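Late entry, written up from scratch paper. The run itself happened at the end of the previous shift, but nothing got recorded in the book at the time, so transcribing now.
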Amino acid sequence: MLRWILGGREAQSSVEKSPVLCIGEEQPKNCFTELQVLKGHFDIVRFLVQIDDFRFASAGDDGLVLVWNIETGERLQELRGHSQQITAITTFTCSNGFTSLITASSDRSLSLWDPDTGNRVQTISDLQSSVKCLLVLERLSVWVSGGEELCVWDKDFQLLCHRQKYSDTGITALIELPENLIAAAVDKEIVIYRLVVSPDSSVSVTDVSHCSDHHDQIRALININDGIFASGSHAGELILWDSTNFQNLAYEHILWEESHPSGQTETRLAAPKPSEMSIQHLTTNGRVSLGKRAVNNISWTWWFSCEPQCFVL
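Output as recorded:
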């Protein structure tokens, strides 16, 4: 397991071999043992994406994208060009078959990068607003950006179509569904769109459904399998959805009771009021792991098991 420790606040110089701190052999080994500490970023790291079997990239609030060797921890490339924080990053297979990186930034630009050379291949600037999420649809040879508007782009970075304008919150998450459908988180609602590809290769986007069972802003979307996807909200709501008819299959509002230090005397006049857990991240391997953040910034993890006829929290 790798962990990134923030370095000093000063900007980093040109790419050089990064110092890799190897943890001593005397440290007890377990599944959470740190193997290496990688330094290079000088602000919060928010994104990690695997490029191939040998490399991954990290990005965050310093506007940098760093490419690392997975096995050795060596810093291979430093991608510079954004003037503000990175808001989204994804891998992308170009027309020539090589894997590239697409990044979005608060500087209202999109960039295509060659991770082999560190060069910025293409840039889309002066967008109306910053992009908050990216989704690549390899089967259709297009990619989608979400923010205050939904845009569909081809592999040559040409805009094919767009839909605008959404709430001030905008689109915060995107996932691919079967039958050329995509799900977009827009504030408290999930909007289902269908991408229609015409014989002349033009693309259009149509509304299919609106899912409005959440009571707070949706922070995370994820596919469980071909038939089920899940969403998590800022208020700790977890909902499982049918990917074909978009029906609510299961709903859980996750609460917790704040504990008090031992020995502290407390007089209760009523039952304790539970606090909400904010769902910040979802990941799956047949079950969903929920990353949450409480009011006091304590991180919690819950497991949600998903079987064809059984949903257990």
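The longest strand covers residues 189-197.
(Scratch paper discarded after transcription.)
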